[in-house]
Amino acid sequence: MKFMFKGILSLGLLMATQVASANVVGSAYQIFNPTYNGSGFVTVESSQTLKSGQFSLGIMFDYGSNSLPYITTESVDGSLTEDRKDSLTTGTFTLGLGITEGWDVGITVPVAFNQVVENGRIVENDLSDNNVTEIRFATKVRLVGNDKSAVALIGRLNLDRIDDNVFTGKDPDIGYSFELAWSSQLSDKVDVAFNAGYKWNGTGDDIAGQQYQIQDDMILTSAAVGFAANDEWKLSAELYRGQASNDVAHPTDRKQDPFEGLVGLRWSPSRLMAWQVGYAREIQHSLGSADWRAFAGVNLTFGGTPPPMEVIIPKPMPLPMPEPTPVAAPLPEPEQKITIKNITFASGSAVLSNDKGTSDALNDLVKTLKEGFTALEVAGHSDSLGSDETNLKISQKRAEAIKDRLVKLGGFNASSITAKGYGESQPIDSNTTAEGRANNRRVEFSITK
């Protein structure tokens, strides 16, 4: 899968350099912006960040109908009309990297692949034979909260690649913005998010003879609500808007402030991959808003620091009250339970990995067992992805694989070790989040001294 995605990314960038220069709405009004870290919504940022050492790769293809501004013509009754039809196909490439817990960075590169204009006088933007319209750098820092509800600060830098941008002028400067992102998981099924911020467009010099006035800064707002049907499927509804801070004259019948809404469907067959498709349309007929648009994309997430081995030692059971007899009853041996989450297997199988984390965890356990034990149960647990029968079988096979490895490493009597798979029947966390599912995928060792 990693090689397939690299191939798609390389092909997309090659297309971006070969397609003839397109007329597109400039960076000030490129309103459909997918998130750079695949955080759960399509365009609205959640307050969650990538984990330390995690990185994500994404690509989103977007087909928009009638998204470009045209110089209007005067009709018979004296009103201004837009007599044209156009379509614009773009691709947005994203890369995100988790720096520390609660802080990540990212880069977004929107590319114009194809544009069709049937008639009308289109407003010209000079891309200088380069269909990369801009390059955006971003960083997100969680200010307060936790994985379920938090507030984060997002900062962005925009490098405008359009030399003569009808909205930001000739040779525009670097634009930048700051936004606050709040999101909260209201229940296992519903989460919400809201973004608000301000964007400085970095306007350049006036373009001689153009009929547009240079736009000033913009106030950014967006909101989203998501509904999770199960661990794999999620439906989201989003609104996103840019409100210009100054009023300018422009020779079209479009409103000045871009405003769109969308419905998106997300499918996550595993914690590493998420596919998204959806439909959007303009809330008002405005600059940068498409009459309608369809989009589809995929996001892949890799890496991250594995959680440390968690050792759970329950409190000893209270001793029974002594019976009035001269012979004291023998005390029961306390049971020690150890949970290990960084023992890994080959994907979808019961073959133990040869990585250092797995080897170290098993060697440490062998040292503990050699201090003496009378019985040991190896219990395998899974998350809820997949069917009950599949999860039960794979957890049983993995528990047996660990038992065989312990017997081989420590020379223990196999009859004193029991392997048992429990599948998804005993979760210790929610299965609606990636982190919760990771906690549920565990191996527990019940040791009787």
**Oligomerization state of this entry?**
single chain
Query: C-alpha Rg, in Å?
Result: 29 Å
The strand count comes to 21
Question: Helix proportion of residues, in percent?
Answer: 10-25%
Low-confidence stretches: 1-24, 120-128, 328-332
The global form is elongated
Largest sheet: 12 strands, antiparallel, barrel
| Strand content range | 35-45%
From the N-terminal CA to the C-terminal CA, the straight-line distance is 46 Å
Helix-strand layout with pairing:
Elements: H1 2-18, E1 54-65, E2 73-74, E3 80-81, E4 86-100, E5 103-117, E6 134-145, E7 149-160, E8 164-165, E9 169-170, E10 175-185, E11 190-200, E12 218-228, E13 233-244, E14 259-270, E15 273-282, E16 292-303, E17 310-312, E18 335-340, H2 356-369, E19 375-381, H3 388-410, E20 417-423, H4 434-440, E21 442-448
Parallel strand pairs: 19-20
Antiparallel strand pairs: 1-4, 1-16, 2-3, 4-5, 5-6, 6-7, 7-10, 8-9, 10-11, 11-12, 12-13, 13-14, 14-15, 15-16, 17-18, 18-21, 19-21
Helix pairs in contact: 2-3
